[in-house]
Amino acid sequence: MSLVDLVTEKLKPYPKRLEHVLGVKERALEFQKIYGGNAEAIETAALLHDYFKYDSIEVQKRYIPANEIEKYQSVPVAYHALSAAYYAKDHLGINDPIVFEAIYYHIWGKTEMKLETMILATADFCEKNRTFSGAKKVYELALKDLQQAFILSLEYTIEYLKKDGINPFYEQIEVLNYYKENTWNY
C-alpha cells in the first residue's frame, strides 16, 4: 500500500483533514521548489504530519516515549505530531531523520531546524484550504522569505492562543525568539 493510500484510508472519515494534508503536501513541495531541500522527505513528512490528529490522546501516547509524554503533558495537542513521527520511524520503517524532525516539530518548529522542517511548519499554517486570518499573508511572504513567513506564523499562533486565554508553550516562545534574533542558515 502506498503512503498516499495509507493516509487516505486512515483519514477517510475526516475528508476535510485529508484535504488539508494533501494541501500541505502541495504547498510544501511548492516551497521546496523555491528553497530546495529533500523533496521526497518533505512529501513523506507532509503526508504523515497529521496521521494521528483524530486519534485519542491515549492512542497517541502509545507511540511516544514516556519522557516525551511528560515533557509535553501541558500541551497534549503536540502528541499527534510526536506519535506520527515515532509511528513513521518505528512502524513504517521510515528512518530518515529529516522526515522524523519535520513531523515531530511541524507545530512550532525548533531552534536550528532543518530546511524541510521549516517548510513543513510554514506550509501547514498556510496551505491553500486554510481560511483563518493570516494564512494568506504568511503564504505570500513565504514565496519571498521563508524565515519571515515562519516567524509570522508563530506570531499569529501565539496571538491566537493568548486571545483564548492559553499560555503558549515555552518552546514556542524560544523558537520565535531564536528566529527573530538569528539569521537562519539551512
UniProtKB/TrEMBL annotation:
Please give the catalytic activity noted in the UniProt record. Answer: P(1),P(4)-bis(5'-adenosyl) tetraphosphate + H2O = 2 ADP + 2 H(+)
Q: What's the EC number here?
A: 3.6.1.41
Keywords assigned: Hydrolase, Iron, Metal-binding, Nucleotide-binding
Database matches in InterPro entries: Diverse_Catalytic_Enzymes, HD/PDEase_dom, HD_domain, YqeK
Please give one Gene Ontology molecular function term for this protein. bis(5'-nucleosyl)-tetraphosphatase (symmetrical) activity
Please provide an example of a Pfam family that matches this protein in its UniProt record: HD
Q: Where do the HD/PDEase domain residues begin and end?
A: 13-138
Which CDD domains does its entry note?
HDc
The name under which this protein is listed is bis(5'-nucleosyl)-tetraphosphatase (symmetrical)
Please give the organism.
Paracholeplasma vituli
Please name the gene that encodes this protein.
Answer: yqeK
